[in-house]
Amino acid sequence: MANDKTTIEQARALYIQRRTVTDIARTLDLTRNTIYRWIDQYGWDRLRTEGSPKDVTEQRLTALLAKGRRTAEDREDIKLFTNILERLEKLERQDQKRQVSEVAAVTKGETKKRSRNLSRKAKNNFTGLDKDLLMEQFRASQYDYQFDLNGVRNHRVRNLLKSRQIGFTRYFSAEAFVDCLVSGENQIFISASKAQSAVFRDYIKKFALDWFDKELKGTDKIELLTDNGLANLYFLSTNSMTAQSYNGNFYFDEYFWVRDFEKLNKVAGAMASQKRFRKTYFSTPSAMSHPAYDLWSGERYKERFRKRNQEVPEFPAEQQLRNGAMCPDGAYRQIITLHDAMARGCDLFDLEELELEYPDEEFDQLFRCQFIDDSNSLFQLATLQPCLTDIGDWRDFNPDHGRPYLNKPVWIGYDPSRTRDGACIVVMAPPKRLGGQFRVLERIRMHGQSWFYQAEKIRALTEKYTVDYIGIDLTGPGSGVFEQVQQFYARATPIHYTLESKTRLVLKAQEVIGQGRILWDSAWSDIAAGFMQIHRTTTNSGQITYVADRSQRTGHADSAWAIMHTLINEGLNYRNLRPSRYVFGDDHEQAA
Q1: 91 close to 218: Cβ distance less than 8 angstroms
Q2: What sign for the dihedral angle of Cα 362, 366, 371, 372?
Q3: Which of 27, 224, 329, 572 is the most exposed place for a label (fewest CB within 10 A)?
């Protein structure tokens, strides 16, 4: 019925999106008089977001882009609103150029008072730059393999698969900063967490200081005054993105590790829907089961041809992508491994040392850009993605504070180094109530450090947090660490690895992860990668055990095992245990 609550709510939502009354009536099969009556009756005019003509046009365009199926009329409207936006932005740039002219006139000495007023309006003034000198500074700050990307900067879509730790976040920070200063276009940085997006910001602030001796002002947004007008640098985490608020070139960092990629990619695409804007995706690989894999592999594009029974276009092979290639879907793709970076000037790594530290499968994923096949893993990416979060959203945890978690209890898990991997310590906030959520507050990884050094790291954590439990694997140097820890924390719990104990650790982790009872920061993508490496296998006597890669080396997935050493403290049968008389509130223990 026309007056049912659901229909009214649908009409209200469409009206707030600035859809026309005629469009709403046609969409919901109602009369226009009915819509007008509801507008007056419920006061919907007050609900529409007030704003400039540009804001209104962006809202209308966003609403059309978000529609699942678009009519021919919708497509015409998209073209119309896009053209209107371009004209409005052209007028905006002309107005900004007038502001620039005023600033230039003031710098020639018109009036000191006017200069002070304008400088207050333009905190980050970069007018009158020497563009040639800027490019020289940009070039000098990058390795060859990084600056190669500047040659393909003008492709509308770039999709890059990269090795870990080869400086792409730093390069793209510089590229976007330079482009912003030269073109006056907005630049948008999208990361899985606030901490990750802050890395872009900090790099750009350092470039401004090194190149121009200027201290940039701004946090989530930095506004620059350029010769082409005002332009903004936006630093977004994936939970703060709204298509209505931003437009410009976007850089999507570590997109293979974000939750809800399909949804986020639609929002990001709307930000760069105008033809002058560019999209850059770059990431280390995760698993082939990740929704972004179809974007990388071209399967999403190929599916269109399969549905039409047309010949499916062929995409470049991996070896071709090592040199970079334009693909049939119009995107430029490239794979940059650690070996590629080293061949083009990167001197930051000792390859032989890395190959000793990391088992083959982990090395392939981290440095050779190989995807994990998690189809046979005990922990699949689909179950691990809900564990990813933004630590910056945790109001009861402040990593910069002397007591980051105040006096609330934590558990510590330690996984020792074995033949080829590193050691790891994790600090876990246990559930405040039975069956509640675990949170990884801190994670420390160590390579090549003595057992005494590692024990001292644990000692420092006992002074920083209120520690209720420490679980230590006794394998190899773990025994030395355990003995040392016992001297300052007598209640430390030894974990002896046997077939039975490993089974208990894995079963507990499967239960906690499967029920969505644990969270860790999205920046720690290697935690999920480590869990995905864990497989079931059999011993020589035919008994089932668990290893962290197919070649049966257990010196692997250190963060995952350290986490399991804390989770097991809850026990497998925790629901049948008598509940505590106390629960932990936000600041103090409170009687239950």
Answers
A1: no
A2: positive
A3: 572
Residues contacting 73, CB < 8 A, separation 6+: none
At 280, phi and psi to the nearest 5?
A: -130, 120
Task: Check residue 206 and give its pLDDT.
Answer: 95
* CA gap 166, 357 in Å, rounded: 18
Summarised one tens digit per residue, pLDDT across range 310-321 is: 999 999 999 999
Contacting residues for 419 by C-beta, under 8 A, at least 6 apart: 553, 555
- φ/ψ region of 43 (left if φ > 0, alpha if ψ in -120 to 50, else beta) reads left
Rounded Cα–Cα distance for residues 345 and 393 (Å)? 39
Q: Tell me the per-residue pLDDT of 533-543, one tens digit each, with 9 for 90 and over.
A: 888 776 666 67
pLDDT tier for residue 196 given thresholds of 50, 70 and 90: confident
User: 284-321 burial string, b = 16+ CB within 10 Å, else e?
Assistant: bbbbebbbbbbbbebeebbeeeeeeeeeeeebbeeeeb
What is the distance between the alpha carbons of residues 149 and 366, in angstroms, rounded to a whole number? Answer: 21
Q: What pTM did the predictor assign?
A: 0.67
pLDDT at 492 over 70: yes
Q: Are 106 and 118 in contact (CB under 8 A)?
A: yes
User: What tokens were used for 579?
Assistant: 């509940």
Contact (CB, 8 A) for 558 and 530: yes
Q: So what's the pLDDT on residue 114? A: 45
Give me the amino acid identity at 11: A
HEC string for 303-371: HHHHHCCCCCCCCCCHHHHCCCEECCCCCEEEEECHHHHHHCCCCCCCHHHHHHHCCHHHHHHHHCCCC
Q: What would you report as the CA-atom Rg of the chain, rounded to the nearest whole angstrom?
A: 28
